[in-house]
Amino acid sequence: MSWFWSGWVVVLAVLTLGISFFLFVWGLRVHIPTQPDGTTGHDWDGIRENLHRLPTWWVLVAASAFGLAFGYLALYPGLGNFKGILGWTSAGDVRAATLAGDASLASKLEQWRGQSIEQLAKDPQALRIGRRVFEDNCTACHGSAAHGNAAVGAPNLTDADWQFGGSGEAILATILDGRKPVMPAWGGVLGEAGVDEVTAYVQSLSGEAGRPWLVRDGKKRFGDFCLSCHGPGGTGQAGIAPNLSDHAWLYGGGLYTITASVRDGRNGVMPAWRTRLGVDRSRLVAAWVLAQGARDHPAPH
Hints:
Elements: H1 3-29, E1 39-44, E2 47-50, H2 56-75, H3 90-112, H4 117-120, H5 124-137, H6 139-142, H7 168-177, E3 182-183, H8 187-205, H9 212-225, H10 227-230, H11 255-264, E4 266-267, H12 274-296
Helix pairs in contact: 5-12, 7-12, 8-9, 8-11
């Protein structure tokens, strides 16, 4: 804060507090003339104004409030650039709390470094911290419950469908270094009719009924252009192309969205979080994500 604005704040604070205190003291000492009957002589439609001293408790409370105000301004910052006798600042308080929190977390991270993601996924304390880190950094795309967002191509992290692998290490690699899956645009190659045919066939893979002739021709075109990535029956290949035969869709499984994907392609981006979160925090997020999938899809007995 510049010295001008600092001085302006000081003048306003001192003037306001000074006038208030003066009025408080003057109100206790001022003599107000009264009539023999103890009233002030003012009369409003037959109602005469009486005069009583302020209750002692009220005076003490008001005096205490002024004492607290003067004491606060002396001890803490409040008068422009004056830092107060104690030298306390909110920024310093935050720094101290942050350092204490980091020190506490560091000791926990140290003991967790020797554990696998699968082991961390069973540790309630690790999951609490992992969830908090996820909420602070990942919910904008994946949602607070990690159910994903088809509008931005963010996958549901609680189902059993994983394009790049659902093991602890695979999830950690995705968080640390990101992913950039690419679905090429086929509109120029297939033409409008070809796009409609492939779309119909893709819908049929997940059980959607379609016009038989479109599905038939779409299957042939799928074999010519899509089989190398998505595999026979559209079951996908880990790390290359998603499974098209289930009900998990990155951008939605409706006619319009599938048509748009085939015609225009998709360029999804999962950003890398290594620099922002570091390995230790990323491991906790990976453990929490892994635990969500295990919760929704428990291992068979």
